[in-house]
Structure formats: C-alpha cells, structure tokens
From TrEMBL:
<dbReference type="InterPro" id="IPR036052">
    <property type="entry name" value="TrpB-like_PALP_sf"/>
</dbReference>
<dbReference type="InterPro" id="IPR050147">
    <property type="entry name" value="Ser/Thr_Dehydratase"/>
</dbReference>
<dbReference type="InterPro" id="IPR001926">
    <property type="entry name" value="TrpB-like_PALP"/>
</dbReference>
<keyword id="KW-0456">Lyase</keyword>
<dbReference type="GO" id="GO:0006567">
    <property type="term" value="P:L-threonine catabolic process"/>
</dbReference>
<keyword id="KW-0663">Pyridoxal phosphate</keyword>
<protein>
    <submittedName>
        <fullName>Pyridoxal-phosphate dependent enzyme</fullName>
    </submittedName>
</protein>
<dbReference type="GO" id="GO:0003941">
    <property type="term" value="F:L-serine ammonia-lyase activity"/>
</dbReference>
<feature type="domain" description="Tryptophan synthase beta chain-like PALP">
    <location>
        <begin position="72"/>
        <end position="370"/>
    </location>
</feature>
<dbReference type="GO" id="GO:0004794">
    <property type="term" value="F:threonine deaminase activity"/>
</dbReference>
<dbReference type="GO" id="GO:0009097">
    <property type="term" value="P:isoleucine biosynthetic process"/>
</dbReference>
<dbReference type="Pfam" id="PF00291">
    <property type="entry name" value="PALP"/>
</dbReference>
<dbReference type="GO" id="GO:0006565">
    <property type="term" value="P:L-serine catabolic process"/>
</dbReference>
Length: 376
C-alpha cells in the first residue's frame, strides 16, 4: 500500500470549549489542560507511572478535544460480519481499521495529536515507530504543514522506510528500540517539537490528546450493531493506547463501567497475562518473542493497559506469530489482506468460541488494525 497525503497544508484547529482538563487513571487527580508526556506528575514522581484521560463538562455534546482539525478522512470504518468458517459461529464482527487513509487505526490518534501540535504552535512532530504509527503521523503532519521526525530501528521493513521517505518524514535509525526513546526525550525539550508517542520508562503511552481519537471506534461499533453492546472486543496490544481509547469510548456509550464490554488485550507473548496474575509488575521489563509480530512487540506495557483489562473484567490472552500467520493466510482466502498482528484478534475470538466461554447471545468484535504490506 502506498500512502498519499496532500501537499497543501490544512491548519485550522478549534479546541472543544468543554474540555475541562485531564484525570489520572491511577490516583484520579484532576489536572488542567496541558501536556503530560510522563503522565500524571504526582504518580510519576512516586514511581507509579500512569497516563491521563480527558475530562469534559457534564453538558458536553461532543467529547473530543478538538471540534475542528485537519483530517484525511479517518474513521467510520466498516463493521463486517466475520465468515463463520473463520471463528466457528455467527454473530462475530470485524472492525476494519485498515480502511483508514494510511491503512491502520493509528490515523485516529494522529489526527488529534497533530491538532494538539498545531494548537501549541509547534513546527515538528516526533514519534518512535518502525511501522504504522510513523506512517500515519508522517501523513497527517504533511497534511498540516508540519515537519515530522520518526525514530526507527535499523531492522525497519523496507516498505515502511520507503513510505516514510515518500511522505517527507525525516528518519533517524537506531540499533535498539529503547534507544529511540532517549533521543525522543532529548528532542522533545526543543521549542516547537511535539512528541506524539511514548518516550518514558516506565512507559506511559502516547499523547492523551491523540488517544481520545480512539474512543470513536467504540461509538461506531455501538451504532453499527444497532445500538447493541458486544460482549467482547479483542484488540491487538502493546502499550494500550487503542485499548484504553476503546474502553473510555464505551464508558461514554454506557455511562456505567459495569456495562462496558470486555476489552481484551491480545499480546504476542505472555505480557499482560503475567501482570494481571501478579507474576510481574506493569513497570517491569517483559522480554518475549515478537519477531513475526513487530507491530505489537516491545518489552514494556502500561498502567492504561492494566486498568482497561481490570475495569472491563477482560483478562488477557496471547497469540503467537505462527498462529497469527496461519490465520492471516486463511483470511486471505476470504479477501482480507492484513498484517499478521491485525488478525490476532480473530484468533482470540475463535478460541473463545471453541472453549465455550463466549456469550452465544451477544456479538463479539475483532479489531483488524492494519492492512497487509510485504513482509508484515
């Protein structure tokens, strides 16, 4: 897939006047509207890193940080019935996030991250990504007339490197993924530079302005199911940005936590499972094999991931690269050309059906996060 973004800048931004501040996911402290790259300052100081979530006035008709912002047509992606042969039953649906302009769910986040950079008057946005997040941010930055710098690893797939170059992004290559965060931490101190993705250790997550864009996935699913709540939404998972966004989107739909569907994090190795079981702390390094699933690899996760799994009563699961590849090939037979990590969600729902633990009377949804690219 070759991504195209307009060469002319669209820079008009209007902040939602009903955005009243942010709230820590851990200590629940209320904070003013500002940027929180290390999450809640108080929790960070005591070594309990936690991201924050936007808070709106009770009367708010729109619960997004910006009412006007540069867009490329992201959102309103299809919800398709999953072929029963793939999962073993009807009433399972596929949320086609590969429909987004650059081929992944990341566009929803990039739109609002770039809007925040524009509101601040920044000239450059930066991210650490060797995949979809970098492609997406580069496209949205170009559309808004901003420079974009992406810290990649030396092992980045050629298709991603080529797309970043076509989109005009500056790439900085590092031998190890974690070293990219060191560069970001330093670069983010420069005037006019906005960090769209995490660079903290322990990890916190991406820009809370950007994460707000993911809430719309939940609203769309609810509407597309005829104002019916699914029993579960399976989400390929690393540090929980989209996971958390979907959770808070369903909180807005239901207005009560107990009605929220299970938002299931699907890891390439036992990461969230070990944290939920108490074997690991969410701040611990957790190495594992993600060679076939680099989009959701990494040794770190976040409190927002744990919070979502706990609050939605979801638990967590693991899908290996080999399992994902087998499902990817099977889905090709049905016309779905997806990256391996995208189909981890389908494998998860198939397991739930086979185990007999799925609610047979309620729909389930698999998030298909990214389009297929050579070698991905």
């Amino acid at each position: 897939m070759t991504v195209q973004a307009p060469a002319t800048a669209a820079t008009a931004v209007t902040r939602n006047p009903d955005l009243s501040g942010f709230q820590c996911l851990k200590c629940e402290a209320l904070l003013p509207v500002d940027d929180y790259p290390s999450g809640c300052p108080a929790c960070w100081q005591r070594g309990a890193a936690s991201n924050v979530v936007a808070v709106y006035a009770d009367k708010a008709a729109v619960r997004l940080p910006y009412l006007q912002l540069p867009r490329l047509g992201e959102g309103n992606t299809r919800l398709l019935a999953c072929p029963p042969d793939l999962v073993g039953r009807d009433n399972v649906y596929l949320k086609c996030e590969f429909d987004n302009p650059t081929g992944s769910h990341k566009d929803r986040c990039s739109a609002f991250s770039v809007a925040r950079a524009l509101e601040r008057g920044d000239h450059t946005v930066i991210a650490a990504s060797s995949g979809n997040a970098g492609i997406s941010l580069a496209a949205y930055a170009r559309n808004a007339g901003l420079a974009c710098e992406i810290a990649v690893t030396d092992s980045i797939a050629p298709v991603y490197r080529d797309e970043l170059q076509r989109l005009g992004a500056t790439t900085l290559s590092f031998a190890e993924a974690r070293v990219r965060w060191d560069w970001m931490a330093e670069r983010a101190q420069d005037d006019g530079v906005y960090a769209a993705t995490n660079y903290c250790v322990p990890a916190v997550g991406s820009s809370p302005f950007g994460i707000e864009g993911y809430k719309l996935i939940a609203h769309e699913i609810y509407t597309q199911l005829g104002t019916t709540l699914p029993s579960a939404v399976a989400v390929p998972h690393c540090r929980g940005d989209v996971l958390s966004g979907i959770f808070f989107g369903f909180r807005e739909v239901t207005e009560e936590a107990q009605a929220v569907p299970q938002i299931l994090p699907v890891d390439p190795f036992a990461r969230t499972e070990r944290i939920l079981s108490g074997e690991l702390d969410y701040r611990d390094m957790c190495p594992g094999d993600s060679a076939l699933l680099p989009a959701v690899g990494g040794e770190t996760t976040t409190w927002q991931s744990v919070n979502t799994a706990q609050q939605s009563r979801a638990g967590a699961t693991t899908v290996s690269g080999d399992e994902a590849e087998a499902m990817r090939l099977k889905m090709l037979e049905f016309g779905f050309d997806l990256e391996r990590s995208a189909v981890m969600s389908v494998v998860t729902l198939k397991r739930l059906v086979e185990s007999g633990t799925a609610d047979a009377d309620r729909p389930m949804v698999a998030l298909l996060t990214g389009v297929g690219r050579p070698g991905i």
